[in-house]
Amino acid sequence: MSNNNTQNTFDPLFLKLPPEFQKKMEEESKKRAEEFDKTLNNVVQKISDAGWTLPMEMGIYPINVLGQTNEISDVSKFFVWYFTGDNHSSFEKLIHNIQTSNIDEKFKPAINQCVFAYENNQYIICVVTLLTVIEGILSSFYPDKTNTKMKAVCKRQVEKFSSSEHIIEKHVWNSYKNFTNKLYYSTEFSNNEPTFINRHWLLHGRSAYNVNQEDCLRLFNAIDTICCVSGK
Fold it and tell me: At CA 137, angle to CA 210 and CA 101, rounded to 5?
């Protein structure tokens, strides 16, 4: 996916067009941007319910299927299929993009070890480490480095955008806000453990550690999502 959803009016070829054609192209570009924005709104709502962040490695066609149709009834099953199909090619692209992103270099060895753990079905090691990486990357977006409230980080980022802005970054942060609300869901340790992976239960040693491949892919995807806006 690309942030460039509108016509570049500084393109020399565009500037040579007659004014009436320029206006028509601008209107068409605006219409396409609005339509794609609506699609991404639908995608974010659908994937958030299943606990996923906006998948930056996913092509336009599957994004349109997710956002414009009801063909995909089980979002999590679809994501697992997407990242494990075709000899794990989409997963490999995701890892490559994380490793070549602008995130702090200190996180990359941890991610490499998580890939090794994941490929060897060591899902507990993978999930627990990826949670700390996500928290570390998220904390870089907040001016107060002593802050430990990741939901506040996401809320602050979401509030930077108006509802009329048609840029992918807005949808990235909306999906992340929804994701952290589930991941950091607060519940007493005397209660039953939440069915969705919970940061507090896992990192405070209260979890039964019933994590699986899907949970690992969910967290790898979440890191890839945040990497796309890192350094902006």
Answer: 105
Separation of alpha carbons 145 and 200, rounded Å:
20
Instruction: Tell me how far apart the alpha carbons of residues 18 and 6 are, in angstroms, rounded to a whole number.
Output: 19
In contact, 138 and 225? CB cutoff 8 Å: no
Q: What is the pLDDT of residue 6?
A: 44
Quick one: tokens of 7?
Answer: 């016509």
Per the rule left: phi > 0, alpha: psi between -120 and 50, beta: everything else, 27 is: alpha
Rg (CA), the chain: 19
Q: Which residues of the chain register pLDDT less than 70?
A: 1-17, 21-25, 27, 231-232
Q: How far apart are CA 29 and CA 32, in angstroms?
A: 5
Q: What per-residue string of b and e applies to 13-43 under the rule 16 or more CB within 10 Å gives b? A: eeeeeeeeeeeeeeeeeeeebeebbebbebb
Residue 50 identity (one-letter amino acid): A
* Number of residues that this document lists for the chain: 232
Q: Taking the model in full, what pTM does it have?
A: 0.87
As given in the structure block, the two tokens for residue 224 are 């890839």
User: In one letter, which amino acid is 81?
Assistant: W
Contact present, 44 and 178 (Cβ < 8 Å): yes
CA atoms of 125 and 2, how far apart (whole Å): 33
CA distance 229 to 153: 14
Q: In whole angstroms, what is the distance from residue 188 CA to residue 10 CA?
A: 56
CA angle 181, 187, 188 (to 5 degrees): 160
